[in-house]
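Marked as duplicate of an earlier ticket. Keeping the data here for the record.
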Amino acid sequence: MVENGGNKNHQQAFEVSIDTHQQGGSKCFDDDGRLKRTGTVWTGSAHIITAVIGSGVLSLAWAIAQLGWVAGPSVMILFSFVTYYTSTLLSVCYRSGDQDTGKRNYTYTDAVRSYLGGFKVKICGWVQYVNLFGVAIGYTIAASISMMAIKRSNCFHSSGGKNPCHMNSNIYMITFGITEIIFSQIKDFHELWWLSALAAVMSFTYSTIGLGLGVGKVIENKRVRGSLTGISVASVTQTQKVWRSFQALGNIAFAYSYSMILIEIQDTIKSPPSESKTMKKATLVSVVVTTLFYMLCGCFGYAAFGDSSPGNLLTGFGFYNPFWLLDIANAAIVIHLVGAYQVYCQPLFSFVEKTAAERFPNSDFINKEILVPIPGFKPFELNFFRLIWRTLFVILTTVISMLLPFFNDIVGLIGAIGFWPLTVYFPVEMYIVQKKIPKWSTKWICLHMLSIACLVITIAAAAGSIAGVVSDLGVYKPFHTSY
């Protein structure tokens, strides 16, 4: 192993800053002295699609079942418009001041610090990182459910449907956790492009299979199931109907959740043209593609199963055959979630490591990079602090997933927690400051009305998801319950 000598973060940062203008004209460096960014509309779209078309798509049929044919698709389209609009507001905040030459904000929190400052930075940091932590838990649960679905479908097929095929999810969560420990050693976003591309392909694979199976089921049934108002009060109590409808809002919000990593993705994009122009195009492509998939998967899933739509379309065993196609779909989900887990966790990894480096600038344990030669590839950069802390993070998310393996409830709660503050409130507030929008002007009032409306939706979704978690905890035994 060869040591990467003289790695002192503060000295390097200082040297880079005083040489910025010289390096700005270099073919190898950007205007901030960092290595030239190479991202495009398509790599940005791949990162977003990897983050967005995830496990959330699998719960959309259930969400529409709670809301019905009128409210379900309408809410989905509404969320897509809100997400796209606020994402364009946020993309403008990547640079402070001029969109071509202003100071870069490398992370979502950096942007909030530049525009809003004060206590709001701490609030943003806590909400963002708690949300990312929750997403890691949700993805671990989803991956284990898909792995169990593969095992169960083969068990069901081999026994001719006679074996109930009960199994425990813990071993599958541990397997996923071990995989994430390995991939978590990928240093940062810039080295994740290939994993994002693979994950994006996988997301289209299982979404298309889910869509195809839904279409096939509708054709088999020779009718479209479901109702205008969703699951009837005859099937559930009036209180359950309300809580489930609220939870469905959280599930749909989760399906569109990616704003908390938008700035980090934008920081991979090359210029000219300005990063905000490229990011707006990438956002438009991504939101249009994901909304089309969501509408098709969610609506055909509901049309196939009606009020009995499963919480997870490909693992709820509404479909039994062809079992090999279900296996392919669930394998694609697992591969996708391996990549999506990393895309979401990179901002949290980066924050902890950057904070540690700033507090202990002379610590070799935290700052020293050791180059490990790999024949045929570029040397692997090993950092002991990164190795240990990221491993502990994955272990913690895995253990919590084993304690609370409630897919729909967790998905709804995560979506609710992150939607209003990260997708709406902070982008709106930063945009107002960036564009110097006058207080009480028409645009100022409209932006705040949008924010207040989304706050109401977030509170309702969080309440419904918490009610679901409380209900599930009443019958669940940690580490023992089998499925």
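See parent ticket for discussion. The first helix runs from residue 9 to 18.
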